[in-house]
Amino acid sequence: MEVYKLNGKTYPCSTTVTMDYIGGKWKTVILWYLSISPHRFSELRKKLMMVTERTLSLQLKQLVEDGLVNRKVYAKKAPMKVVYSLIKFGESLIPLLKVLSNWGEKVVEEKER
What we know:
Distance between the termini: 40 Å
Largest sheet: 3 strands, antiparallel
Strand order of the largest sheet: 3-5-4
CATH class: Mainly Alpha
Radius of gyration: 16 Å
Number of helices: 6
Structural class: alpha+beta
CATH architecture: Orthogonal Bundle
Shape: globular
Number of domains: 1
Low-confidence stretches: none
Helix content: 40-55%
CATH topology: Arc Repressor Mutant, subunit A
């Protein structure tokens, strides 16, 4: 069995590397919305009504730190404006998210019968 090392962390398999980046209840949903267009925090908050502000903030911070999402601050006018967008590394996850979404749709269809 191959062991993976990345950024000072050791992973038992490649799936755990992936889950380290997208694990968490809201990260995949955040990435999905950002794949459509850049969003301000408040816009994401409205779309993800069930997530707390703290959780959304933490998940966004992790996505930025992991190099999947860009956080751009526009401080020219008050109030300060912050916009989140996907960067190339984050965009590389979109095909995976589409597969996960399709799987979820099939599960819902099967369970509704």
